[in-house]
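Ticket #4471: complex job returned nothing on first submit. Input attached below:
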Amino acid sequence: MNSVYIIGIGLIGGSFALDIRKQYPNATIYGVDHNESHLDEALALNLIDEKAELSDLQNADLVILSIPVDAASEKLSTILDVVSDNTLVMDVGSTKLPVCKSVDNHPKRRNFLATHPIAGTEFSGPKAAIANLYQHKTLIICEVEKTAFKLQERALKLFSDLGMRIRYMNPEAHDKHIAYVSHLSHISSFMLGKTVIEKEKNERDIFDMAGSGFASTVRLAKSSPAMWTPIFKQNKENVIETLEEYIHNLTHFKAMMEQDDFEAIFDEMQNTNHIKDILNGIK
Amino acid sequence: MNSVYIIGIGLIGGSFALDIRKQYPNATIYGVDHNESHLDEALALNLIDEKAELSDLQNADLVILSIPVDAASEKLSTILDVVSDNTLVMDVGSTKLPVCKSVDNHPKRRNFLATHPIAGTEFSGPKAAIANLYQHKTLIICEVEKTAFKLQERALKLFSDLGMRIRYMNPEAHDKHIAYVSHLSHISSFMLGKTVIEKEKNERDIFDMAGSGFASTVRLAKSSPAMWTPIFKQNKENVIETLEEYIHNLTHFKAMMEQDDFEAIFDEMQNTNHIKDILNGIK
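Support reply: We reran it on our side without changes. The output follows.
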């Protein structure tokens, strides 16, 4: 890989840049971003070697599309129009059905690989990029059979070099399940933050009472609205379903409290304790 | 301090034992626990020097009552009956009004100090004890004026030796605000865990899709039901109020999604982003 273009050089794209530079020292890494100051930061941080434009992609070996999911679905077609037959284009968004659908009938569909690395932090922008972010993390690949063999091979070598473990799914299943294990967590965290901020807005020193448990539970409420709004929009049906079930469970918990049924509350918590086993292995 | 009794030698009591042993090397630390195997573990881990009984408290300089809040409210009176005039008895529970009320008219009320260290993890039992757990953590003290001066002084020296920062509140305010910044987080986390486990019970490998965000948000769902059920019971009114507001906010978020009002969703998340500033300083 000599020529790598990263479109959207924030946390996710920038972290790919760091690891690709390490694994492929001969590669030139180009950054494309509509945010000029992010490009300057990315240069200063040595994430990228040069700034570039979408029109420069002709000779790319690899294009990583790491921009909000609505923009990715919009731009992917145009990107495929530009690239050569030998270019691998991958997206890394948190929804997979819309982006796959957007190029389903594109003549260069075989140049595209739909992926979702389960990695990140609540921060964003080039300064949030982290070396080895992807090591030992899951990468979900959708519709692998629609990507050209030689480009599948190039992609799998990259993911292996970065230390990722691969899981194959169809985009419908991905979007349905990720709503539960990721998108719902973000909403629960944002709404927890909102509830506490609203209540306590006139009593700032109350936050001295908050400990590491609260910090952990609302951590995701620091996440970027520009990234998350399009995710909720694209995965609307699935996310609404998770919210309905979550609200139902909370309402049931409240009813048990109102009925003084603390035995049932004990059981409820005990039954959920085995989340321990499930979390083993998630860092 | 020569003689320290810790009643309930788990995460909280055990962590006090570790730090007291370091700061007061001449003190003998006694463990009292209805769970005999916890006492044996605490001995093996060198948290305590000797096992003891409630009836041995006569000569204690310090008694730390670190058992579930319902048991603490029940037993505190009996403990005060036994101790000498020179004994400081402190509880460390996550609710303060019931324990304060339980001894309001006790002839030895001035031997008691009501505290709540904002420290801990989702684990429990003697093996969960951690050295320096309390360093730089907030300790809330309630009704300090009801404790004898010389015992206040002893307590404040201890907290200072352990590196804690002190905040004084009345028990009503403590219980109201802690419902928001701690108790609600636990319920949101337990119900998130429940929602995901229920949905995904037949698809275990879906949890390969869960990342650090999910892990962070459901971490508290590993907490001990034996500890948390009595907290919810004792703080029922306040917790129900927080749940109502949380459910209201989630329902509103769902309605905005149903109405495709993603601008409002963006604003909602952006307004909550300043939780960043609030969390600064919470480890």
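Chain A touches chain B through 93 residues (CB under 8 Å). Closing as resolved unless it happens again.
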